[in-house]
């Protein structure tokens, strides 16, 4: 754009300059012609037959072809002619209209521009005799000047266009070359930003190649800074991972160590309660409470230990498990624990195998069914269904028509220690780890778990990859 503006300005200025120069030359010629033809200059009235009188100065030396001349004699008669370019040169009489147009210019002995009808643009000068009233108008055509200007303009436009195209191409090439290092640096940044950095052990992070870290260039400074930043990020991530690992190890160790003393407390409390000696009623109550709290703490410790182990990425004991009997057993247990609820079960009549740790899957089922039991009032219908999905997946769904999960809890319901703080859940000894365990176990099995909840319908959906690919009949029979 800048170049185009500059080229345009140059073209306009140079054209105007050339035009002014050519016009001044033309004016000089007109003035000279006028001086030669002016009134008082000897006129040969004996014009050749058929030619207008008093204009033979047009045939004189230095008059160019197509020059016009008009003379008004003192008696008012007018004669006008244009010089024919042929050999020998001849004078052609002007029409009345042309003559009148030529006489219309101011008689001030200055050159004027006029478009003579039928002849084109002329530069004309009028010289008058103050006493006799005689007038002579002389004019030379502007065609030569116009042609010259036209040519200059054409050349300027062509050269400018070619220059613009060449400059544009050169610019593209130069910019591309100049930006190549920056593009390499950007490529590194893009690839690193695509890596998974928010959890787990840090993978090696790519660095900007040494060639693009020269601090003497701007791009090199960017590259070097990026590398420094990546060093810091790697160090921070490594530190984070080490801390996480330590905390996990600590939780796992602490949970493990707590199991034995908890079992002892439980055992002694039970022993005392059932002992021979009759306990006073408040002591018996205290022992029952000690036992109940110890039991609750044991399950909490077990949950923590399981989560710590899953976090540590311990490999699962994988076997080929048929989900149907597992689900049937879990629902039977839930029915026994919650006789006030209505339990429904749908399993397909073909086996549904997954590669899994059966004890962990059992825990998933127990946690989901326990939630459906403890977080809903009696009379709630809980439907458990198992089905094979297209694309080799198994879907387990636990749906209840209870009051639903509180909206403020729902988005984080799979996180640890997140629970709806109702009096019911507190009295049932809720810790908020149940769904966290579900999520961790399902993730360890390369599955997904989702929840949809509204008052009257809460549904947990677990999907696990199936092992056998026998497709086909997947009809369900109510059990
Ligand atoms: N089926 C459900 N209906 C209504 N609310 C539910 C349901 N399932 C879960 N919730 C809500 O989600 C919260 C988190 O559930 P989660 O199983 O993680 O913890 P918890 O049941 O409170 O404790 P825990 O299972 O460790 O004993 C619960 O406290 C409860 O408010
Ligand atoms: Mg629960």
Automatic annotation (TrEMBL):
PANTHER family: SENSOR HISTIDINE KINASE TRCS, SENSOR HISTIDINE KINASE YKOH. It catalyses: ATP + protein L-histidine = ADP + protein N-phospho-L-histidine. GO terms for molecular function: ATP binding. It comes from the Bacteria. SMART domains: HAMP, HATPase_c, HisKA. This is histidine kinase. Keywords: ATP-binding, Kinase, Membrane, Nucleotide-binding, Phosphoprotein, Transferase, Transmembrane, Transmembrane helix, Two-component regulatory system.
């Amino acid at each position: 754009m800048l170049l185009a503006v500059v080229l345009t300005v140059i073209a306009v200025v140079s054209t105007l300059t050339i035009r002014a120069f050519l016009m001044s030359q033309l004016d000089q010629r007109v003035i000279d012609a006028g001086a030669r033809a002016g009134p008082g200059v000897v006129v040969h009235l004996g014009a050749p037959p058929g030619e207008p009188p008093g204009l033979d100065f047009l045939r004189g030396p230095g008059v160019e072809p197509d020059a016009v001349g008009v003379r008004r004699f003192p008696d008012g008669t007018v004669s006008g002619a244009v010089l024919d370019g042929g050999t020998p040169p001849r004078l052609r009489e002007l029409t009345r209209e042309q003559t009148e147009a030529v006489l219309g210019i101011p008689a001030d002995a200055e050159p004027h521009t006029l478009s003579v009808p039928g002849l084109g643009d002329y530069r004309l000068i009028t010289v008058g005799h103050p006493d006799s009233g005689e007038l002579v108008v002389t004019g030379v055509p502007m065609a030569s000047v116009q042609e010259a200007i036209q040519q200059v303009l054409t050349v300027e436009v062509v050269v400018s266009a070619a220059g613009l195209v060449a400059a544009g191409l050169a610019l593209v090439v130069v910019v591309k070359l100049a930006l190549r290092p920056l593009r390499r640096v950007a490529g590194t940044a893009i690839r690193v930003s695509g890596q998974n950095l928010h959890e787990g052990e840090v993978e090696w992070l790519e660095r900007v190649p040494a060639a693009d870290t020269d601090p003497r260039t701007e791009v090199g400074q960017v590259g070097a800074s990026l590398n420094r930043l990546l060093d810091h990020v790697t160090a921070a991530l490594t530190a984070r991972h080490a801390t996480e690992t330590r905390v996990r190890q600590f939780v796992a160790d602490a949970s493990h160590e707590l199991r034995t003393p908890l079992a002892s407390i439980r055992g002694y409390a039970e022993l005392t309660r059932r002992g021979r000696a009759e306990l006073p009623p408040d002591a018996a109550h205290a022992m029952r409470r000690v036992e109940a709290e110890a039991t609750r703490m044991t399950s909490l410790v077990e949950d923590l230990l399981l989560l710590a182990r899953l976090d540590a990425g311990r490999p699962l004991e994988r076997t080929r498990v048929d989900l149907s009997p597992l689900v049937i057993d879990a629902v039977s247990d839930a029915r026994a624990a919650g006789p006030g609820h209505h339990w429904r079960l749908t399993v397909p009549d073909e086996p549904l195998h997954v590669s899994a740790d059966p004890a962990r899957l059992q825990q998933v089922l127990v946690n989901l069914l326990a939630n459906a039991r403890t977080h809903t009032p009696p009379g709630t219908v809980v439907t458990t269904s198992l089905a094979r999905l297209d694309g080799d997946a198994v879907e387990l769904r636990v749906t209840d028509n209870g009051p639903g999960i509180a909206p403020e809890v729902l988005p984080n319901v799979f996180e640890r220690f997140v629970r709806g703080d109702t009096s019911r859940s507190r009295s049932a000894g809720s810790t908020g780890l149940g769904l966290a365990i579900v999520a961790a176990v399902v993730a360890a099995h390369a599955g997904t778990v989702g929840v949809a909840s509204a008052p009257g319908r809460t549904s947990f959906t677990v999907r696990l990859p199936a092992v056998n690919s026998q497709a086909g009949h997947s009809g369900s029979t109510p059990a």
